[in-house]
């Protein structure tokens, strides 16, 4: 999905993608069986492929998760999902081998629909893992229910499929380390650690003032893009992105009353307070989990967006060390060239709105080592 040339608000979804993705989303059971068949056919080449120390980038959207994914994707050992994997995500090996054999017209990189300067091609990394979760946990995005998965969660059929999916992705990408970007995994860290005891977690966080400004900007952009364009809305629902747009759904991190209050504020048009309370809801949950689980705290690294922008190569060295990845010069050079504090927008809150943000977010922000400020880009 990308912008049309010259179009300010429209989101474009190709007809073939719309038709095929709709077919796949309506028949998850069929595609799960096809994925399992693919795994059996690949038994020999998969025999030597293991999931070791997977890396999960998980946190609230617009905190720098895509930037982290792009930096880690440049590492020679890393395998990630790519835009080319959609819509046949359930059979990644066969689909990618098919694409490798089909003549394709390579176009120039285009800016993604977020309007944030990130330019993409079919080879760019992307978050598609959520499609697999939705196939096995169909109610995982219901705001009225807790969306938390933890050590008590058990879904053996998903766990086998998920492990084999990652192994096939490592095989087709010729990688040894799987890296996932999934905002919704923020409420599944302990379940993922149960599945992979050696997993490493990166939790991007951001100054709430700037973060909420970015979240509100995206909500306006996505709503405008989806109006009169049902394909755009259907596309995001199929890939499991409910962060923004006409079907915005807050993640329920175990406090249904807080989520209902957030939804009511949004319905009333009280976007600033709604986002501020949602920011506190998600980040309080994360802070609680890290404080209560020494094992999770050891495996997780909080990545503060402002610190990453201020000293990208130094912060990336820390990130790579935490992920137990080597530190190639080319990857560090990419961070120095690529990472900048955004200059295409800045917060424009009133004093009253800033006070609302401070009231709801400051206690949790301090727990995460953040300070609230309306920082002006250099």
TrEMBL record:
Note the InterPro entries from the entry.
P-loop_NTPase
The coiled-coil segments of this chain are: none
Q: Which UniProt keywords apply?
A: Transferase
Instruction: Spell out the molecular function terms from Gene Ontology.
Output: transferase activity
Superkingdom of origin organism? Bacteria
Its Enzyme Commission number(s) read 2.8.2.-
Q: What protein does this entry describe?
A: Sulfotransferase
């Amino acid at each position: 999905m990308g912008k049309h040339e010259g179009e300010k608000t429209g989101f474009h979804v190709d007809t073939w993608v719309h038709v095929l993705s709709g077919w796949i989303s309506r028949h998850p059971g069929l595609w799960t069986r096809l994925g399992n068949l693919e795994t059996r056919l690949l038994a020999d080449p998969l025999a030597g492929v293991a999931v070791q120390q997977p890396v999960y980038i998980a946190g609230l959207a617009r905190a720098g998760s895509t930037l982290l994914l792009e930096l880690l994707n440049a590492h020679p050992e890393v395998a990630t999902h790519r835009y080319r994997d959609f819509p046949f995500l359930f059979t990644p090996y066969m689909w990618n081998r098919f694409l490798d054999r089909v003549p394709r017209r390579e176009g120039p990189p285009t800016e993604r629909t977020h309007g944030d300067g990130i330019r993409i091609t079919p080879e760019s990394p992307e978050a598609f893992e959520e499609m697999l979760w939705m196939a096995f946990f169909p109610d995982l995005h219901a705001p009225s229910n807790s969306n938390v998965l933890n050590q008590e969660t058990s879904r053996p059929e998903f766990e086998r499929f998920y492990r084999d999916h990652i192994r096939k992705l490592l095989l087709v990408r010729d990688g040894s380390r799987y890296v996932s970007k999934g905002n919704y995994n923020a409420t599944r860290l302990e379940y993922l650690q149960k599945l992979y005891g050696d997993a490493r977690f990166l939790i991007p966080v951001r100054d709430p003032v700037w973060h909420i400004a970015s979240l509100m900007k995206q909500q306006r952009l996505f709503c405008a893009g989806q109006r009169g364009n049902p394909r755009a809305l259907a596309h995001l629902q199929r890939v499991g992105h409910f962060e923004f747009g006409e079907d915005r759904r807050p993640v329920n991190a175990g406090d249904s009353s807080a989520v209902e209050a957030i939804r009511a504020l949004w319905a009333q048009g009280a976007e600033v307070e709604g986002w501020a309370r949602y920011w506190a809801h998600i980040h309080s949950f994360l802070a609680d989990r890290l404080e209560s689980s020494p094992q999770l705290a050891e495996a997780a690294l909080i990545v503060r967006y402002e610190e990453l922008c201020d000293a990208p190569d130094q912060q990336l060295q820390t990130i790579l060390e935490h992920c137990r990845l080597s530190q190639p010069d080319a990857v560090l050079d990419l961070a120095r060239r690529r990472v900048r504090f955004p200059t295409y927008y800045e917060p424009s809150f009133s004093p009253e709105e800033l006070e609302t943000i401070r009231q709801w977010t400051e206690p949790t922000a301090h727990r995460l080592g953040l300070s609230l400020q309306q920082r002006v880009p250099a």
